[in-house]
From TrEMBL:
This is G-protein coupled receptors family 1 profile domain-containing protein. It comes from the Eukaryota. Its main location: membrane. Keywords: Membrane, Transmembrane, Transmembrane helix.
Amino acid sequence: TTSQTIISDALLPLFQLYLGITESVFGLLGLTLNIVTIIVFIRLGLSDSTNISLTGLAVANIGVSLTMMGYGALNNPLVLRTVSNVETIEAVRLLLLGIPNVLFSRIAGLITAFISLERFLCVAWPLHVKSLVTKRRTISVIFGVYMFMVSSHVPIWLANQIGQRLNPQINVMVVGVISSQNAEELRNVTITITVAVQMTSFAVVAVSTLCMINALRRITEWRKVVISQESRKEKQLVKMAILISAVFIVCSFPSVLANTVMPFFKEFRVQGREKNFFMVSGGFCFTCQLVNATLNTFVYLAMSSRFRDNVYVVFVCQTRKR
């Protein structure tokens, strides 16, 4: 007798079809919105440290959206049926789309953590932090995040490469994934770093968000006595950072939960009995990260009148009447 699984082999293609279409649609939407975001922030000027951080985040979100759009298309059962060499598709999906998607997702997570932490510190110790967080230092941090995450993914690309290999089932040379002799050790290096980065980013964003909410209450109380243009701007920036952080927390939670429970459930992995559930869960986590990459633009539209005005100018080509 065969033991029951949460998702059967018969149901798996239906989930893959749904996830593939969703990932492709949201990927295209996220790509478009983040390109618009970068254009607007360039128009607003990159002299402000917050604009620099948000532009760096938008670049990472473009990477998330672009790779996920391609991944969703190549993971669609309707597409796979038209392909003779599935191994080649799987190699492209893993090395050129899946791994880069995780890379950009972790970059986005670290930048979100930096934004939320910076915004909290600016409220808690404004005089000290505003002189500390300069344009040059912000650029250095964003650049450092990209370099660190790219270098952390070098081992997994050394472990797996695309090339010709013998398929023993059909005894034919096909283009697929070629693993090095120490592939397991190299993969573990990258996986350990990416999981640690995700958990750290999630924790920093969660704690900073709670602290920002408390700081926002103090700003509100203070504004009852002192009202200034600077205090209004500061409050709006804190609110925007809280919304960006909240979206990140909600969208990252499924992936954080999956990484937390995996060590305790041996069958919940790609070689385990619940491999179908693992694959669908992974697809759902990818989709949540994609939603996070898409929603940030709507947060900017809701919270920043200058951002809205510039979007209007870019698309309507005239100044918005108030």
